[in-house]
Structures are given as C-alpha cells and as structure tokens.
Design goal:
disordered N terminus; about 450 residues; globular; two-stranded parallel sheet; 6-stranded parallel beta sheet; 2 domains; single chain; TIM Barrel; about 55% helix
Length: about 450
C-alpha cells in the first residue's frame, strides 16, 4: 500500500449523517421567493386596468393598454431574471388579476387574451405576432377560429421543440389556447362560484406538485447503498457535475470557465446530444474532464420496461464511446429516477450509479444569484454538485442556461475562499474508499501522483 498524505485543508471535523426522513430540500425555496415576486408583480400591475377612470376610456384603448402593460412587466422580468419560467409566472399573475382584486371592484374591459399575447411578445416575438393576428381575425374566422387557433398551437409547439426553444413557452401557449377556447363558456355561469371551485381544486395540486419537485425531481429517489450520492465528510472537497449536454452554446462557455479556474468536472451526457455536437464532446475529454452517461434520449426510466431501459443505457454508452473514444464508467438516470431494471442493467454494464447531494436547481429558471445562494448554503464536505449545461423544464434540449454560466465562477471562487478543493467524481469515489473500505493501491496512488 502507498502512503497517501491527505492535505490538511481537505480535512474537516464537521459531523455528517444521513438526512432526516422525510427530507425536504428547503434551500430550494430561494426560487419560490422569485416566483412569488414575479406573480405578485404581474397581479398588481394589471390592477391599473381596474381604475374607475377607465370606465370613460374606449374598450379598444384599454385592450391595447393592457397589452403594453404585459409587455413592460414581462420585459422587466426578463431583464432581471433572464428566465422563461419567471416570465410565465408574471403573466399568470396578470391573468389572475383579471379574476379578482383586493381593492377595485370595477370590471376590466380589456381582453385577457391581449395581455397574454403581450407577455408572449417578449418570450417569443414571432409566436406572439401569429397569435395577435388570430385574435384580430376572430370575427372573420368565426366558427373556424378554434380550429385555426388549435392548428397554430400544434405547429408552434412542434417548431418550438425542434428549434430548441423553451418548452415552458410551449406549455404556456397550450394553456393559453385551452383557456381561450373554454374560458367564455366557463364564465357564462356564476363567475365567482366557478373561480372558487377552480381555485380549491388547483391550489392543493400546485402545492403538492411543488413539494414533489422539491423533494424528488432533481434530487433523486433512493438512499440505497448501491448508489453514490456524496463523498466522505472528512475531506473538504466537492465535485462538479453537469447534466443534459453537450449544448452548442452553454457547454463551451462552461468549459472556458473550468479551464480558466483549473477545475475538473464530470459531464453526464445525453447520447443523442453527443451525436449532434461531437466536437464539443471531444473537447470535454481532451481538456481532461470525465464523461458519464445520461441515457441516449433523456428518457424517464422509472416505470419503463426492461428492454427500454437497456436500450437507453447501452445506446447512450455506445454513442459516447464512438465519438469520444471513452466508454463511460458512470451513469446518472434522468431526474435521478430509476427502477430495479435500471440497477440490473448498470450492474451488467459494470457502471457506477452516481447521483448528487446538492442540486443547484438551475432547471427552475431562477436568477444566477439564486443558484449561487442555493449551492453555497447546501455545500458540505464531500458534496457532489448538480448543474445543467443544457435542458429545459421538461425536455433535455432548449431552455436558457446563461444563469448557470454566470453563477459558476462565483460558486468556484466562493467555495475556494471557504477552503474547498475541487476534484472529479472518480477521485471522490477513491476518497470514499480511503475513508471506509480499502481501495486498490494502484488506484489510490494515482490520486496524488
């Protein structure tokens, strides 16, 4: 056995232990704060349309005034947060302001459709122009209006997906269409009663959904011993990991930062994305970073058949190996969700299942400051940090990751000031062997050559 000296700066006496059950990652509530601000800002901004003096103003003027308010609010949110989700949240707040006001009882003479179209103009200008054209052509279209609008929505969602745009915008447009088609019929009945029923039904569902996302999605199921979530708590080290790439824009930007800061990382890549951007995948390996598999198409493995799981894992492995020349030794299931079939396949493929202990939750679309605060507050010795260099709210492509790029150098500098060092997942596994079971001497010696 080699005599291995662990640097003093890596050692810590900080107590460690498994998280209590049930476990809620409350550090992620920084994003809930941002969402609440966006919702409230949108809600109160639209109350301007309820002012009593607006009764003397022409309906058409009020309609376009509401459109301009939506543009201004959404543009402000975009500049401050640079997040599609926050823009959608502000629009939802404005639409809710149409239904109820704590102060003004005057009805709003503007069309809520134009407010939604105003928000959409900032999110996706081309899409908004099409929607506004359909709205203005409602009377000429008459009974064909719903059909034409529905076809536009379907085409727009497909185009949005293939152009790698934000899927949250596509979901917003779909919800906009459903509300536009069914809203008038719902509101012909007792409006207050109907709104209360909808609110009573949706509020518990939203709360449950947010708790579920906060606890499980992008934190990962399971505390089993056959997976690796974090390193030993006796060494003041952390490992950076990135999911869903490579991406044509954000992965090179992240690689530039890592190269400048001289920090290693592990990239869990989607096989299909590797085939789309082979040069970026080759660069990751050439610059000394580790690669792991994140399936071939970012498919959900929880509940998938054994054949589907095997195809996703093996095909992803093959795609990465053919491009980079390295067959991944690590696997991370999308969203951290896996099944018995997943464990069987990765065992046969001799893969290590790697999850994480701290999620940046950059997929939620918060500010870069939220990402920094969420990571710094959650870091402990031996932490494996999760970031994304691609992906969106639902899909593995599209979306904005510029806030991740902005947050990364701040996180690296802050953690270094706190005495942390950055190592790869491989080295974290080795340290885990040093802290517990004995590890092969040759592997141990490579850590501090």
């Amino acid at each position: 056995m080699f005599d291995i000296v662990i640097p003093n700066k890596w050692q810590t006496k900080r107590p460690r232990g498994p998280p209590p059950w049930p476990y809620f990652n409350l550090k992620g509530w920084a994003y809930m704060e941002s969402l609440a601000i966006a919702l409230v800002l949108g809600f109160f901004a639209i109350q301007v349309l309820r002012l009593p003096r607006n009764k003397l103003v022409d309906t058409t003027v009020i309609r376009w005034f509401g459109f301009l308010i939506a543009v201004a609010v959404t543009l402000g949110i975009k500049i401050y947060y640079f997040s599609s989700m926050m823009m959608v949240a502000s629009c939802v707040g404005m639409l809710f302001g149409f239904i109820w006001s704590p102060v003004y009882k005057e009805p709003i003479k503007a069309d809520w459709q134009f407010v939604a179209a105003g928000s959409l103009l900032v999110m996706d200008p081309l899409l908004s122009i099409v929607v506004i054209g359909v709205l203005l052509g409602r009377r000429p279209l008459r009974r064909y209006y719903s059909l034409v609008f529905g076809m536009i929505v379907i085409v727009s969602v497909i185009v949005t997906y293939y152009l790698d745009k934000s899927d949250i915008i596509a979901l917003f447009l779909l919800g906009y269409y459903l509300a536009d088609v069914t809203g008038e019929r719902l509101l012909q009945s007792d409006k207050k009663v109907m709104v209360r029923k909808i609110a009573y039904l949706t509020t518990p569902m939203l709360i449950f959904t947010m708790l579920f996302l906060n606890r499980y999605v992008y934190h990962g199921f399971g505390m089993q011993r056959d997976l690796f979530r974090e390193g030993p708590g006796v060494f003041k080290v952390v490992a950076l990991t990135f999911d869903d790439g490579p991406n044509l824009v954000y992965t090179p930007a992240i690689l530039d930062i890592l190269k400048e800061k001289e920090v290693p990382a592990t990239f869990f890549m989607v096989g299909r994305h590797v085939e789309q951007h082979p040069e970026i995948a080759k660069r990751i390996v050439a610059e000394g970073h580790e690669v792991g598999s994140h399936t071939y198409s970012h498919a959900n493995l929880l509940g998938a058949s054994g054949i589907k799981v095997m195809q996703e894992i093996i095909r992803g492995q093959t795609a990465i190996e053919e491009v980079t020349g390295e067959r991944p030794k690590y696997f991370r299931p999308p969203r951290g969700l896996y099944s018995i079939e997943t464990l069987e396949v990765i065992e046969n493929e001799e893969l290590s299942l790697i999850l994480w202990s701290v999620s940046s939750q950059d997929w939620l679309g918060g500010r870069w400051r939220d990402i920094v605060r969420n990571v710094i507050k959650g870091v402990e010795p031996g932490a494996i940090l999760l970031f994304h260099d691609s992906g969106d709210f639902i899909t593995a492509q599209g979306g904005e990751r510029m806030n991740t790029v902005k947050a990364l150098p701040v996180i690296i500098d802050t953690l270094r000031e706190e005495g942390y060092s950055f190592i790869s997942v491989r080295d974290m596994l080795i340290l885990s062997g040093l802290a517990g079971e004995e590890t092969d001497a040759d592997v141990e010696g490579q850590l501090y050559e």
